[in-house]
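Chapter review: from sequence to fold.
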Amino acid sequence: MTAAIGRRKRRKLKSEINVVPYIDVMLVLLIIFMVTAPLLTLSFEVDLPSSQAKALESKQDPVIVSVRLDGQLSLKLPEAKEPAPMDAAQLQAQLAALAAQDKNLRVIVAADKAVAYEKVVAAMDVIKRANVEKVGLATDAR
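The token string follows.
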């Protein structure tokens, strides 16, 4: 009996993973999802009214108010190439005149991330005093 035990070879353990069953399961799940995905979209017919209205063709570029690191304000109009530096009173007067001409005037406040929050809020106060309703904020403007 001891001779029979001694003759057996010890089997080495395999250190690799058999991935075939995982691939089979994945393919079955893929087929199931491909079959069920078209069934998941619920749709119904809607009879929409027709209209002769045209889309707005002109998108107005916004006016950009820049706040520099030292607190200096500048105004860039859509047709201008470079922003014009000005103080708060001049900026308010200019924006008030533009807002009087166009009630849908859009103004964007652009400031570098290093500008103090207090200076950006002061610029937004000037814009609000000029009766501009649509104000946005852009950061990291150079």
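Two observations follow directly from the output. The longest helix spans residues 20-40. The longest strand covers residues 106-111.
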